[in-house]
Amino acid sequence: MNTAPQRPPLSVKIIYALGQLGWSLAAYGAANLLVYFYMPSESGAEANFPTFIFQGSVLGLLTIIGILNFGGRIVDAITDPLIANWSDNTISSFGKRKKVMAIGILPFALFSFLIFYPPFTSAVMNGWWLAITLFLFYVAMTIYVIPYTALISELGHHPDDRMSISTIISVTWAMGFLIGNSVYAIQALLEDTISSTLAFQTVIAIFAILSFILMLIPLLFLNENKYCEQKIEQTSMSKSLSGVFKNRNFLLFTISDLMYWLALTFTQVGVSYYITILMGLEKEFATAYLGIGFLCSFLLYVPVNLLVKKIGKKRLLSIAFIVFSIIFGVTFSIHLIPIPKMILFYGLAILSAFPLASFGIIPNAIIADIVHTHEAENGEAQAGMFYAARNFMMKLGISIANLIFPSLLLLGKSVENPLGVQLSAVCAFVFCLLGFFIFSLYEEKIA
Predict the structure, then answer these.
(1) Is 2 within the bounds of a domain?
(2) DSSP H or E run through 62
């Protein structure tokens, strides 16, 4: 293997980043649309979806969709270190990361659609269908994403490349999110000629095909052996995972990152509820809200990179936590604020651009810094395991949010009774503040 890898040019970074666009789009539905499809609100066009699975409470607190979503994410998180250890120990002339990614790409795209295609008339059978397809979806997702993210630090063997790679994949991740978020608007257009269910499923099928093509690009065109700094680590999974979590800086960062993903998932899963129930707008504005935030965040990518050089990653990410908490505080109390709803709508959407840009760029660069610092201090090259551990915490946050959010909706998800939706915003507010305080203990180091 090449012991003196070349620094990747911009073209290589873009080829790599297109894979992020693909997997971001493939993952969008499972992360953000399961509740929308399987537990629609009690007002608006969403109610036109049939009842595919049991809608009531389980054990008085939980829901079927919440349990399945949580269980799928936990299985996903558990497989992360297994796939990471496999990827770290792989030897292949094709590329140690690409070899593993190639195995997951087709089932990842396929099951991103099948989870939204319950074929039975029985709610029980559809529940089992969702459980099985979600399990297979998350396993396939892990097989592609874990080795893919390990390439961030291996391509970024120079500090400047880490920030530029993190910035570019943040752009493509956001593009994938924006394309996925357009499902509400495209569905509304298709509903003029076909049913709400078929319109929704058609959009998801198109997304699955597009995501497959995009994820294939780095497999075909990225020369891993030429541009990546890699070592083969013949280390057991338990030893590797233990070493990663003994890194204090990494542990503090990932716990704060867990809080961020809890809050962000509440935003992504709850956006249609916040828009239609708390703001009293049509569901199409959910697409506009997130679209405005992400598009405005693009304008901040250069300023964020400049601010990182001036004040550091830690300080800028701490400010982003505070801004994010303010957004949720306003969302919860929006009925008490004597300002027209449309002004608040645009104000919150634009304000969200700063935390979206900061959290989109900085965390991956922080992990890459930790990977290189850890290797310099301990001589252990464990990029795959570090990103797997980070993904474990991220997915744990998403899992918990997907478990809690539907349960809160049982307390009220209508204009007449919005209590559950309001409480979800309160929870997200608390998560952001906890993330800020935990991250304040992180010590910034760059190797």
Answers:
(1) no
(2) strand 62-63
